[in-house]
Task: inverse folding
């Protein structure tokens, strides 16, 4: 057994978890750890400009790669700055592991210790308990290897989620005999991954009998890497597939069976067809209010089969006929296997013909706006410019909903957006994390001017660490989504939404050493994007749009899916 | 609104600091109301038992159980069947006993309720009583006319009847 410091044990543990990159900012309570990182070639530490950015980068990395993303922050304000990032990861079930410094557990002769309100002390365990899947504070250096193993295991298995380990400074500096476990047994944590055979049988029976079966696919399909299984099953029964906001990219949107997203800003097609389904196979979704609208107006005619790895999601919002608590991938595979024994691949059904017709009508009625440059037109153009493997991150608000509606995703994990928490400022740092995860893929952040301002300082990270991403700002000089609600529901009384046309984003980008381009037409946008893709330099493309543009379709708050409004 | 009932949930948790916070925080965050709670060690030194009384309709209670189960430090959650359990609470009650008449009345009531006098002073008596929360409520009600100076209650604890026991799956 080797005797080493807690900081050394942490870095050794991280290597054993195959961590090769972390995002963070140092500080007094992290000095011992960063000192060990100096001599560590296996782990790249990316210096963010704000801890919130570091947490979102870790999140973007995790979502693009399907592995834990690691962020690090010092005690006190460093730690509290990652809180938004953790809450964001928690609601979107993203395996972010946060490592925080903390003041000493004990100090002989100073008050620099836990519980004394020491300099830069914050109770980060207390603060993050409701927004992490797991957190713990290390009390002695010898605990570190097991704490790290436990934390990574919990964050990445079952329903993934963020986790945090708090490292008091003296546990980083003191030495101990370290034992590095290969695995851990956690008494209170045994996620179920295999489906119950009886429930699978019931689901199969119900799907066979269904006349108008439909799939609602959520973020769980992506987390479980179950896209191939989903596609296979959908094609076997000719089931149309609607995705939730978090499920976007789990099913190719250029596929004839793709209905697009459901929900508040879902497609008219998905919101309409789901009401007609008689059996709904819901996979890895939690029936969030933004997806369902009012609950009594959600799928009134459908019996629901609900697959989710989290038992607490079953029956939480919507009563279900067949509950299956399991991992989506083996469950979908099993359902498919059993169906294949019973039926041949369906070519066409009464329902699938209806779906096809509805989709044709829907496509022919798509409205991209009248002006020369509108967000929908721009996003359609962007799709043409990017390869299928390109990763899209978004900010939050109109930009995000336009992207969800008009940017077709083809491959899983190419859509990274803050769904649950709706965190403005998420997209840009997340795109940096995604680029680190997938260096060979172009990564584009679809931004609004309001959101981008919340984490724009990460341009510094992007440029100095040479992580080139493209930021497309749909710039209406407004907090556009709030303005839209004020137009629609508050008699156009604009309050606290006008941001003005500052800063000049082109100059801002240039000030950071990035490329800044203003695009006033689709062709200018296209040229700027092509150039950015070729040169691989961080580029901000500022596209002025009308401040009056609304995102439609829209499901007004407090209404059911049938009341979705196509436009004004 | 579905009908609300009182439910007793017996929860085995890791016996370590911070767990009570995690559990009570969950109730607060999800707007579940704890009516009554007691915490203590079990037959296994590494586990503690939390007996939680909570009001709600069946769907709420189902969520309480599922959300508790999600917590890593929670090892086992069981909804106790109210028809088939023993529930007990202990209370200490300090009552004014200013004259001989009051003193003997109080002791008479205490006998009926099987409460014990555990402390005596010239002006007061302290009684210890165990029983169901209803029984303790009733006893405190009877003491009120004498002047109840202080009450300390432990909170409810409960086990199901019979040989079966709640065991943590290893």
Result:
């Amino acid at each position: 057994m080797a005797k080493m410091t807690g900081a050394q044990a942490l870095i050794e543990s991280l290597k054993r978890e195959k961590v090769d990159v972390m995002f963070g900012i140092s500080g007094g309570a992290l000095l011992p750890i960063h000192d060990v990182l100096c001599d560590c070639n296996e782990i790249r530490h990316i210096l963010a400009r704000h801890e919130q950015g570091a947490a979102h980068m870790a999140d973007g990395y995790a979502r693009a790669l399907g592995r834990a993303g690691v962020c690090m922050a010092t005690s006190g304000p460093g730690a509290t700055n990652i809180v938004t990032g953790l809450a964001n990861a928690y609601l979107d079930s993203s395996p972010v592991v946060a490592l925080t410094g903390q003041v000493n557990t004990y100090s002989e002769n100073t008050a620099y210790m836990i519980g004394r309100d020491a300099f830069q002390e914050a109770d980060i365990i207390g603060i993050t308990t409701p927004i992490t899947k797991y957190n713990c504070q290390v009390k002695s250096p010898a605990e570190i290897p097991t704490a790290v193993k436990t934390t990574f295991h919990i964050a990445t298995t079952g329903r993934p989620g963020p986790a945090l380990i708090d490292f008091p400074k003296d546990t980083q500096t003191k030495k101990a005999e370290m034992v590095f476990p290969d695995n851990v047994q956690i008494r209170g944590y045994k996620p179920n991954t295999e489906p119950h055979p009886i429930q699978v049988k019931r689901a199969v029976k119900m799907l066979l009998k269904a006349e108008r079966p439909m799939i609602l696919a959520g973020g769980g399909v992506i987390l479980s890497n179950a896209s191939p299984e989903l596609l296979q099953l959908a094609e076997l029964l000719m089931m149309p597939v609607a995705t939730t906001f978090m499920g976007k990219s789990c099913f190719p949107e250029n596929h004839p069976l793709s209905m697009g997203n459901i929900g508040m800003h879902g497609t008219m097609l998905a919101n309409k067809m789901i009401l007609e389904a008689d059996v709904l196979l819901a996979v890895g979704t939690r029936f969030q209010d933004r997806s369902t609208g009012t609950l009594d107006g959600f799928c009134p005619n459908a019996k629901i089969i609900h697959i989710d790895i989290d038992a607490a999601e079953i029956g939480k919002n919507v009563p279900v006929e067949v509950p299956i608590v399991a991992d989506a991938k083996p469950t979908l595979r099993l359902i498919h296997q059993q169906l294949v024994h019973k039926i041949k691949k369906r070519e066409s059904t009464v329902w699938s013909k209806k779906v096809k017709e509805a989709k044709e009508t829907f496509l022919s009625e798509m409205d991209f706006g009248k002006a020369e440059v509108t967000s929908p037109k721009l996003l359609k153009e962007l799709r043409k410019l990017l390869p299928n493997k390109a990763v899209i991150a978004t900010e939050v608000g109109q930009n995000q909903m336009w992207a969800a509606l008009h940017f077709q995703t083809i491959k899983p994990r190419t859509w990274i957006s803050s769904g649950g928490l709706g965190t403005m400022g998420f997209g840009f740092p997340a795109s940096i994390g995604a680029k680190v995860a997938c260096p060979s893929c172009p990564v584009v952040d679809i931004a609004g001017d309001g959101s981008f301002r919340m984490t724009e300082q990460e341009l510094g990270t992007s440029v100095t660490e040479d992580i080139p991403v493209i930021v497309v700002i749909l710039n209406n000089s407004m907090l556009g989504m709030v303005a839209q609600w004020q137009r629609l529901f508050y008699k156009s009384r604009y309050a606290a939404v006008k941001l003005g046309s500052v800063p000049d984003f082109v100059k801002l980008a240039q000030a950071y050493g990035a490329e800044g381009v203003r695009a006033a037409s689709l062709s200018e946008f296209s040229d700027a994007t092509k150039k950015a893709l070729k040169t691989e330099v961080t580029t901000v493309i500022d596209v002025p749009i009308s401040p009056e543009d609304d995102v439609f379709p829209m499901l007004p708050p407090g209404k059911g899916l049938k009341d979705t409004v196509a436009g004004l | 609104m579905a009908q609300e009932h009182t439910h007793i949930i017996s929860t085995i948790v890791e016996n370590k600091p911070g767990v009570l916070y995690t559990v009570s925080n969950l109730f607060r965050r999800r707007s579940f109301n704890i009516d009554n709670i007691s915490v203590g060690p079990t037959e296994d030194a590494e586990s503690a038992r939390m007996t939680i009384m909570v009001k709600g309709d069946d769907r709420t209670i189902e969520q309480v159980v599922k959300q508790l189960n999600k917590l890593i430090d929670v090892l086992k959650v069981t909804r106790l069947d109210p028809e088939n359990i023993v529930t007990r609470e202990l209370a200490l009650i300090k009552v004014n006993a200013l004259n001989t008449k009051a003193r003997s009345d109080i002791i008479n009531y205490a006998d009926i309720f099987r409460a014990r006098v555990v402390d005596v002073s010239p002006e007061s008596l302290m009684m210890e009583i165990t029983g169901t929360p209803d029984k303790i409520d009733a006893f405190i009600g009877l003491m009120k006319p004498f002047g109840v100076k202080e009450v300390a209650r432990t909170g409810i604890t409960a086990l199901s009847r019979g040989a079966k026991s709640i065991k943590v799956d290893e």
Observations:
- The domain at 2-178 of chain A is CATH 3.40.50.970 (Rossmann fold).
